[in-house]
Specification:
The complex is a heterodimer of chains A (460) and B (344).
Chain A (H helix, E strand, L loop, with lengths): L2 H16 L2 H22 L2 H35 L1 H35 L6 H30 L4 E4 L6 E4 L2 H5 L4 H29 L4 H36 L1 H7 L6 E3 L2 E8 L4 E7 L2 H7 L5 E3 L13 H30 L7 H9 L2 H18 L2 E3 L3 E2 L10 H32 L4 H5 L4 H11 L1
Antiparallel strand pairs in A: 1-2, 3-6, 4-5, 7-8
Helix pairs in contact in A: 1-3, 1-14, 2-3, 2-5, 2-7, 3-4, 3-8, 3-14, 4-5, 5-7, 7-8, 7-12, 7-13, 8-9, 8-11, 9-13, 11-13
Chain B lengths: L2 E2 L2 E2 H29 L6 H11 L3 H18 L1 H10 L1 H21 L5 H31 L19 H25 L2 H32 L5 H5 L5 H18 L3 H23 L2 E3 L9 E2 L7 H28 L12
Antiparallel strand pairs in B: 1-2, 3-4
The chains are: A mainly alpha (460), B mainly alpha (344).
Chain lengths: 460, 344
């Protein structure tokens, strides 16, 4: 295999793995702020137990997010050197802002959030929780700004030619507010809230059906459900807005999302479909002209198809793009149905008796994760062959000096260590879930520093 | 070219990158150093205390590495691309160690079996040493320079990073971080464990001084470009003199058990040595050994003035914020390790 394929597989693998964790940290961060805020307001010990239980799981997702995040940053330099030279000037200010305003905030308050419960005043702890939550939200802003700039570049000009060509920033705010960034940031945030809320609901649903920690779980589930109902509905709007932006700024990607090849026919909207890329036909169920309607509010307006673009300037993996996109949309709709139904049952005070529904929620934790991953796959594969849309091709963005064998080595290395890391995550998550929320007697019976130093000074 | 206080933007950014890496070396330096010493402690409770001494801060310290990488990428994207792709294998091993270390810290305390804890203790210690070593190896290669062609691409072999000078700088880095970590542990431990750390500290200082002298001799004898600036400006000799005084102060204060001050001086040692590196390199960032015309400098590997101006503004707003939360968190966890139900 050549360097390009290997490097793309490696980047895809490492970023898909990374992207399991930051959305969980953002989503759990929101719920921690809610739980701890309720604790401060009501002084109800159940909220304290909920907060402290979810802090333990938050610590896990955050730690893995940091370790795998360093990999992403370094890979820009190691595997995508030409890309780094090309975009460095534009990305620079976004990355600097992320480092100074987001990461520093998170890392500063993280220690207090995780280890400071018995050391600082409750309000100070709450401030730390909010600090970490805001830090993770800010982080998402700058990363999505950088990625959105790769989708819809703005506020730059090109300097130099050939190998030396690179983008330089001309207008910082135009770069930050490039056409797709605001909608995509909202879409990513909401996706992250869903990931967190569904994890909380999954664990508490499990406790309820297993008849453990039932009272506290009902509280935890209720607040996560409120978040999930609101967010899954809002996600429809940001999703639709993002698709409109794609239609106006990345027409080749839009065509690939629906497998629309005809140069100037009205576009159909598929509920599901399968693309035969050779015959350029899609088999499935569609609303004729539905795509035209969604974009232009008219069933007969033509939409530019894939054949309107030169072969080397349009995505090749059309079927994969269509499948990922449609799976994401389908999951999004399923989440709306699921949360609305659960909300309705809760309102009628029947939710806790519906064991089968609670079991669905136990496993529904995978749905927002899959939607998040699939959405990114569609966005990134749909942008191909470009890495920066219309400016730089992925095949030109590689490191010139790195060989296939080197990438193969690191790809095998990452596959092994990420497998280990994933097992660790599942193992620890399972252990923390088994242990359950603190009960007060176990807190008091832990060894104190005095006990430990006595043991140590006698034996070392 | 835009300037601020008479200094041009690329030079300002060079200083920012230097300051961030010096902050990273000081902060992650002590937890990596504590990791390097980990296997010298034999009892499980001692290892637990040593690990919990860095428990609340290691993750936050590692974030400085992301910030450091970000400032380098942001301000000197051309250097970032050339250096990281040239040293592909060492950077990949570095990432492996970073992840393996996080895994070891999290895994260790979760099961009580002796073999389990020993395995992760070894993982934690070896990966801490490997991270410090590879940081030193990269620094050694940067100080030495490497063959770079006119497109600013590396033109040597992938194994070139393994050379005697880089290995020496690598070992020296491990030893300095070990000294720094040992002082931190002295501040954080009591009783027999404290006495043990104190003994290890003195041995680590001797090891560091020996390797520091070796690196200095090697630099002066075989890498003449590193001392060019000193020949032209005699005042610059003040920097190595301060470095030597700062290093000499560490054993003096440690033997008097004034560990807080010793920690200040081991931290200062990192900064002064990095200032020395900065003086030796500037205005070069990465010397081309094949043709000096292809050397990457702060002027040809840099982002535009427009971009640097925005980022410098961010730094001016952001740094006071960063310092204030860093101080808050260290004050919160100041003093000897106290275990509670949130500990590892």
């Amino acid at each position: 295999m050549d360097v390009e394929i290997l490097s793309r597989i490696q980047f895809g693998l490492t970023i898909a793995f990374h992207y399991i964790y930051p959305p969980l940290s953002i989503g759990l961060g929101l719920l921690l702020v809610i739980f701890e805020g309720l604790y401060l307001k009501t002084k109800n010990k159940e909220y304290e137990r909920l907060t402290r239980f979810w802090i333990k799981i938050f610590a896990l997702t955050f730690g893995i997010g940091v370790a795998t995040g360093i990999v992403m940053e370094f890979e820009f330099g190691t595997n995508w050197a030409t890309f780094s030279r090309y975009v460095g000037d534009v990305f620079g200010s976004a990355l600097a802002a992320e480092g100074l305003f987001a990461f520093a905030l998170e890392s500063g308050f993280l220690g207090i959030l995780l280890f400071g419960w018995n050391r600082v005043k409750p309000t100070m702890h709450f401030i730390s929780t909010i600090g970490v939550f805001f830090g993770s939200m800010f982080s998402a802003i700058w990363i999505v700004v950088a990625n959105s700039w790769m989708q819809t570049p703005d506020g730059y000009h090109i300097v130099g030619e050939g190998m030396q060509a690179r983008a330089e920033i001309t207008d910082f705010w135009a770069m930050v507010f490039n056409p797709s960034s605001v909608d995509r940031i909202l879409h990513v945030w909401l996706g992250a809230f869903l990931a967190g809320a569904f994890l909380v609901m999954s664990v508490h649903a499990y406790y309820i059906v297993k008849n453990k920690h039932v009272e506290i779980s009902k509280i935890g589930f209720k607040y996560a459900l409120i978040v999930a109902v609101a967010v899954s509905l809002l996600q429809l709007y940001t999703g639709h807005r993002s698709a409109e932006i794609v239609a106006h700024h990345q027409p080749a990607k839009l065509a690939a999302l629906e497998g629309h090849y005809d140069e100037s026919a009205p576009g159909d909207l598929y509920l599901f479909g399968w693309v035969n890329q050779k015959t350029q036909k899609v088999y499935g169920v569609s609303i004729p002209g539905g795509l035209s309607f969604l974009i232009h509010y008219d069933f007969n307006t033509p939409v530019k198809g894939l054949n309107a673009f030169p072969e080397d300037e349009r995505p090749t993996a059309v079927n994969a793009v269509l499948q990922f996109y449609h799976l994401m949309v389908a999951i999004g709709l399923l989440l709306i149905a699921l949360t609305l139904y659960a909300g309705f049952l809760w309102y009628r005070k029947k939710l806790w008796d519906k064991k089968w529904l609670l079991w669905i929620f136990v496993f529904a934790v995978f749905l927002p994760q899959l939607a998040n991953q699939f959405g990114w796959f569609a966005a990134e594969m749909g942008r191909q062959p470009w890495v920066v849309y219309g400016l730089l091709k992925t095949s030109d963005a590689l490191s010139a000096v790195v060989t296939a064998n080197q990438v193969l080595f690191s790809l095998i290395m990452f596959s092994l260590i990420y497998t280990l890391l994933f097992f660790l995550f599942i193992y620890l998550l399972n252990k923390k879930i088994k242990a359950g929320p603190y009960s007060y007697d176990t807190i008091e019976h832990r060894p104190t520093q005095q006990d430990i130093s006595k043991i140590v000074s006698n034996k070392e | 070219m835009a300037t601020f206080l008479g200094i041009d933007y690329p030079t300002w950014w060079f200083l920012v990158v230097g300051a961030v890496f010096s902050g990273y070396a000081i902060l992650d330096g002590f937890d990596l150093g504590a990791g390097a010493l980990h296997l010298f402690f034999k009892k499980d409770e001692s290892r637990r205390i040593a690990l919990n001494a860095v428990g609340p801060v290691w993750d936050g310290n590692e974030v400085w590495l992301i910030i450091g990488g970000g400032t380098l990428f942001a301000g000197f994207p051309i250097l970032y691309a050339t250096l990281f792709s040239a040293m592909y294998i060492p950077f990949m091993l570095f990432l492996l160690a970073i992840i393996f270390r996080a895994v070891s810290i999290e895994f260790r305390s979760k099961e009580p079996m002796k073999w389990w804890r020993n395995t992760w203790d070894i993982g934690y210690s070896v990966s801490s040493i490997l991270i410090a070593f590879l940081l030193g190896v990269v620094l050694g290669n940067v100080l030495q320079g490497m063959p770079i062609d006119s497109n600013f691409e590396f033109e040597g072999s992938w194994l070139m990073f393994l050379n005697p000078y880089a290995l020496l700088v690598g070992i020296t880095t491990v030893l300095l971080m070990t000294v720094h970590g040992a002082i931190y542990l002295c501040l954080k431990t009591e009783g027999k464990l404290f006495e043990k750390v104190e003994k290890l500290l003195l041995r680590a200082i001797i090891g560091f001084v020996v390797f520091f002298i070796l690196v200095s001799i090697y630099s002066l004898a075989y890498i003449p470009h590193l001392s060019d600036d000193f020949r032209s400006n005699i005042w610059l000799y003040a920097v190595p003199v301060i470095a030597i005084l700062s290093i000499a102060n560490i054993p003096r204060l440690a033997t008097k058990r004034r560990f807080k001050m010793a920690f200040v001086f081991s931290a200062l040692t990192f900064s002064v040595l990095l200032v020395l590196v900065a003086i030796e390199l500037y205005p070069a960032l990465l010397l081309s050994t094949s043709d000096p015309a292809n050397t990457l400098t702060v002027y040809n590997a840099v982002a535009s003035d427009k971009s640097l101006g925005i980022m410098l503004l961010f730094v001016a707003i952001g740094v006071p914020l960063v310092l204030s939360y860093t101080i808050i968190i260290y004050k919160t966890f100041w003093g000897k390790v106290k275990m509670d139900e949130t500990s590892y």
